[in-house]
Amino acid sequence: MLKVAEVGNSIDKATFKAAVPQLRLELVNAQYDLRNADFPVIIWIAGDDRIAANEVVNRINEWMDARFIDTRVFADYSQEEADRPALWRLWRALPPKGKTAVFAGGLMRTATMRANGEIDEESFGSWLRHVRGMQNEMVAEGALVIKFFFHTPEKLQRKKLKKAEANPAQGWQVDQRDWAALDQLGETMPIVERILRETSAPGAPWTIVEATNARYRDLTVGRTILAALQARLAQAPITGPSVAESVFGDVDGEANVLSGVDLNQSLDKATYRKELARLQGRLRKLSIEARERGVSTVLAFEGWDAAGKGGVIRRLTAALEAGDYRIVPVAAPTEEERKYPYLWRFWRDLPPAGRFVIFDRTWYGRVLVERIEGFADAAEWQRAYDEINDFEAQLAERGYYVAKFWLHISQEEQLARFQAREETPYKQHKITEEDYRNREKWDDYVGAVDQMVLRTTTERAQWHVIPANNKYFARIAVLKAVTKGLRKTLRES
Fold first, then answer.
1. Which of 82, 121, 263, 410 has its CA 20 to 30 A from that of 436?
2. Under 8 Å CB-to-CB from 455, ≥6 apart: which residues?
3. Are 325 and 357 in contact (CB under 8 A)?
4. What are the backbone angles phi and psi of residue 144, rounded to the nearest 5°?
5. Residues sharing a CB contact under 8 Å with residue 372, sequence separation 6 or more, in sequence order
6. b or e along 432-447 (b: 16 or more beta carbons within 10 Å of the residue's beta carbon)?
7. Residue 116: which residues within 8 A CB-CB, separation 6 or more?
C-alpha cells in the first residue's frame, strides 16, 4: 500500500511560493465560515516519518488561524489516561461544532507496541474495532474527518536524519526514538498497513502523502483540507442511512421484558433493615478492595418517573467513602453538549482507577425519551444500540464493573407516588406537568425499554430489571446485584 506512494512527487520553490498566499487566504476564509457551521472538523495526522508529521502540524497552525484549532499530540498514556479506556483521550479531545481539532500521534506507537508484543492480537483487534466504531459515529454525527499518513522511504529517512543531526539548526528535532523506529520499520509497517486498511472507510479515508519533498507535502495537505472544507460547507450534513422504524421490531418475536416482572415482591421493614446493614457492610469492603486494586465501577440507573432511583442511589452511596464516588445526574443536554456527539458527555465523566460513578439517567436516553419524543430521528436511535454496546464493551475491556438497572413500577403505583409528592411540601419540586404527560405514552416506553434491554444486555454489561413497587425490595435487590457483580469482577481482574 505505502510503496505505491513512492513516486518522487515534488514541487519547485517558485510554484510553491506562488501558490501559498492564495491557499492561506482561502483556508482562513473557510475556517471562518466553519465557525457558523453545524459540524466539527477532525484532522488526523500520522506517518512513519515523525519529523514530517510534526512539520505538517506546525504548517497547519501557521496557514490557518491557530486560535480556532485545538492541537492534540497523543504520546505515551499519562496515568490519568491509563486509568480509562484507550479511546477516552480521543473522546475528550473532540472539537465542538464549528471548530477544528488536529490529532497527531498514537497510530505508529500502537503499531510498534503490537510489533513488540506489548499488545496481544485480541487487544489489538478490539482497538481497531473501537477506532472504526468511533470514526463511524463521528461521520454519522456529521463531523468532517480528514486523515493523512505521511510516508518517506526508509533509505531517504536515514539520509534526512543524518543531515538534520549535522545541521545545528535542525539537530534538535532528531532523537533516539527516530533511529529506533527506523530500525524496527520492517516489523512495524505490515501492522501500519493493516491499521490503514481497517480504519479507512467512506467519509473517513486515509490520504497517503509522499513526504519526501516538503513543498509537495505541505501543498497537498493544504489543498486537501481546503477542498474538503469547501465541499462540506456547501452541502447538507452527512448522516447515517434513515431506516423505517418498522424494521426494528421485537428482537424476540412478541417478547416483552417488563411483562414478566413480578411487582408483588416485597420486604417487611425489619427484614429490610437487617439486609440493608449486611449488604452495605459487604459493599464497603468490596469498594475498598476495588480502590486498592484500581477496579473502577460504572452504575447506570434508568426507570419510570417516581420509581425510586434516588432512594436506591442513596443506599448505595451510604456504604461508600465520600471520595470514592460521584453521582452524575443526567438531564436534557445543554447547549454546549449538543455541539458534540451524544456519548461525549458520558465519556468525560468516566471514573479514575478504583472509583465509582453512578449515573442517574444515562446514555440510554437516546433510545428512550429521545426516541419516543422525536428528539432523535430513526437513523440516530437505531444506530445507538451498536454505539452503546461498543461504548460499554470498552469499559468492560478496561476492567470496569458495569451494571445497568431499570426500576419497574406499575402505572397505578406511579400515580399514587405522584399524588403523594404533591401532598408533601419538600417533594413537590419533583413533580411536573411533564411527568403526567409522559404517562400518556406508557405503552410506547414499554416497547422502547423492551428493545433497549434485549439489544444492549451483554455478559459484562448486564441489565437488571428491578421490581420497585416495594421500595424496600428494590433497594435490597440492587445492593445484592452490585455486591455480587463487583465481587465477580474483582475475582476475574
1. 263
2. 251, 385, 389
3. yes
4. -95, 115
5. 441, 444, 445, 448
6. eeebeebeeeeeebee
7. none
Residue found by looking up cell 438497572 in the block: 405
Please report, in angstroms and rounded to a whole number, the separation of the first and last CA atoms in the chain.
40
Average pLDDT over residues 408-428: 89
> How high is the pLDDT of residue 492?
94
DSSP 22-43: HHHHHHHHHHHHHTTSS--EEE
C-alpha cell at 282: 459487604
In whole angstroms, give the CA distance from residue 152 to residue 213.
9
Residue the block writes with cell 439489544: 455
Task: Give the number of residues written for the chain.
Answer: 493
Average pLDDT, the chain: 92
Quick check: 300 and 405 in contact, CB under 8 A?
yes
* 69-73 sheet: strands from edge to edge: 69-73, 100-104, 41-47, 144-151, 206-210
The dihedrals phi and psi of 268, each to the nearest 5 degrees, come to: -80, 165
Cα separation of 364 and 392, whole Å? 12
Grid cell 477496579 — which residue? 295
- Which residues, 6 or more positions from 328, have their beta carbon under 8 angstroms from its beta carbon? 349, 357, 358, 359, 360
CA-atom Rg of the chain in angstroms? 27
Work out whether the CA dihedral 282, 287, 290, 291 comes out positive or negative.
negative
The stretch 418-430 carries a mean pLDDT of 82
Q: Is the pLDDT of residue 247 over 60?
A: no
Q: Helix, strand, or coil here: 76?
A: coil
Task: Return the sign of the alpha-carbon dihedral for residues 288, 82, 139, 235.
Answer: positive
Question: How is 6-22 classified by DSSP, letter by letter?
Answer: -S-----HHHHHHHHHH
Contact 156, 212 (CB under 8 A): yes
- Cα–Cα distance measured from residue 140 to residue 148, given in angstroms and rounded to the nearest whole number: 20
Residue partners of 74: CB distance under 8 A and separation at least 6: 89, 90, 103, 104, 105, 106, 109
Cα–Cα distance measured from residue 426 to residue 85, given in angstroms and rounded to the nearest whole number: 41
Beta bridge partners of 146: 43
The per-residue DSSP string of 124-190 comes to HHHHHHHHHHHHHHHHHTT-EEEEEEEE--HHHHHHHHHHHHHSTTTGGG--HHHHHHHHTHHHHHH
- Asked whether residue 74 carries a pLDDT value surpassing 80, the answer given is yes
Q: What is the pLDDT of residues 362-399, one digit of tens each?
A: 999 999 999 999 999 999 999 999 999 999 999 999 99
Residues 12-54: pLDDT tens digits? Answer: 999 999 999 999 999 999 999 999 999 999 999 999 988 899 9
Candidates 310, 291, 303; CA nearest to 413 is 303
User: pLDDT band at residue 169, thresholds of 50, 70 and 90?
Assistant: low
- The whole-angstrom separation of Cα 24 and Cα 12 is 18
Average pLDDT over residues 252-261: 75
What's the number of CA atoms in the CB half-sphere (13 Å) around residue 38? 10
As given in the structure block, the three cell numbers for residue 12 are 519547485
